[in-house]
Specification:
Helices cover 41% and strands 19% of the residues. With 290 residues, it is an alpha/beta fold.
Length: 290
């Protein structure tokens, strides 16, 4: 199974990401097609990015679809066999794509492959229990982080009644959900250790919106955590998984309330609201007002 520049597209979902996305694009071979899904629906951004980069097509979403929905829109517009999902605050290191091309010829079958994080202390994968690996060779994993995952579209589209990203997730755990469903379908997920990637982590949105985005992240982290566990393990298991989060958020909310720390109080308020919304079966409706 061979990946080439000609049968691969890169999908980048952006939202107020003008400050970082060019570093991401510049790290990708200019012969590879790039599809940017702009969730901020910014026509000026579209014109700028398409004028500067001839291999980039920018699609404006009519609404903020989140990561899962944005990636699905990108996949619908890919007519190649493979799609590399990248966050706008991620960038490939030199020769990273070539190492993926080489590795794809050695792996008989895969659903997802991914480069490896350059930061050993922050691995972008979860190993299967009891598994070891050779740091020089591709190795199988349980899941990979969503900021860099290369999908074998040709193979995955053959799975009956299979959807790519669950769009109920707006932010967080949509990648874990996809990986779990693929493992259940006996699809293999690999890390390519010779292919390196850098990820700034949480820097995809313009820092001038830092507070609003922090509130958004905390709301959706709790919403997604409960929803993920309820979807895969049932309501009561999900409750047990989030009980400590609920108690901790409640205590900290009141602590920061009486100590007049408005920012921290709002953080834990958002955690509580996101969790309660998910527990009540409401959708992931919260959006930052930017």
């Amino acid at each position: 199974m061979s990946i080439t520049r000609q049968n691969l597209s890169v999908i980048i979902v952006s939202y107020k990401s003008d400050h970082v996305i060019e570093n991401c694009i510049n790290s990708i071979d200019s012969e590879i097609e790039i599809i940017v899904i702009d969730n901020s629906n910014n026509d000026q951004f579209k014109k700028k990015i398409e004028t500067k980069y001839k291999n980039v097509k920018c699609i404006l979403s009519e609404e903020n679809l989140g990561m899962g929905g944005g990636n699905n829109l990108g996949i619908k517009n890919v007519n190649k066999d493979f799609a590399l999902i990248l966050n706008p605050d991620a960038s490939l290191t030199n020769n990273s794509m070539n190492e993926i091309f080489i590795a794809s010829k050695e792996i008989d079958n895969f659903g997802i492959i991914s480069p490896i994080s350059i930061k050993d202390e922050y691995p972008n994968y979860v190993l299967k229990k009891g598994h070891n690996f050779d740091p020089e060779k591709p190795f199988k994993v349980k899941s990979v982080d969503g900021y860099a995952m290369l999908l074998n579209l040709k193979q995955l589209k053959k799975i009956e009644d299979f959807n790519f990203f669950d769009e109920n997730f707006f932010l967080y755990l949509e990648n874990e959900d996809l990986c779990k469903r693929l493992i259940e379908k006996n699809e293999d997920i690999y890390i390519i250790p010779k292919s390196k990637i850098s990820h700034l982590g949480g820097k995809a949105v313009d820092p001038k919106y830092k507070d609003q985005i922090e509130y958004l992240r905390n709301w959706h982290w709790m919403w997604s955590k409960f929803y993920f566990n309820r979807k895969h393990y049932g309501y009561f298991i999900a409750l047990s998984k989030v009980l400590k989060n609920f108690i901790s958020a409640k205590i900290k909310f009141f602590y920061y309330l009486i100590t007049f720390n408005t920012f921290k109080r709002k953080i834990y308020q958002m955690r509580l609201l996101g969790l309660i919304s998910s527990m009540r079966g409401k959708n992931s409706y919260y959006r930052a007002n930017l």
